[in-house]
Amino acid sequence: MKDILDPIPAEKASDQEGFANRKLIRPSLTRTDHNNNHSHNHLPAERRDRPPAPGKKTGAPTEQTNAENFYYQKQMQTKTPMVVVLRDGEEVHGYIEWYDKSCIKLNRTGAPNLMIYKPAIKYMFKEGENGRR
Known about the structure:
alpha+beta, 22% strand, 3 helices, SH3 type barrels, 5-stranded antiparallel beta sheet
């Protein structure tokens, strides 16, 4: 039994204590790569999932600016009379009741209401603008 439990020599015991008391050094993770070929997967998961700091650009511009949504909301709230010009040149007059990702609903007076697919719209403007009536 005595052969199995050999005591640790005094030199090794002091080395182990010294090792346990060493300061942990962490490298700085702020690194600027001048090559655009590298992906950002070399960052730890907690850095990848964190949103970018305020004021820093994230690279490519966002695809959705919400400008279209804001415009539709404004015209719906005020029930602005609109002219919608279709791809075939036909003009329809009315106000926008609602919209979604692919179409708008145009309410008209004296005519049936229309649901118009956005790809069929050439352009639209507020009635009375652009020198037209």
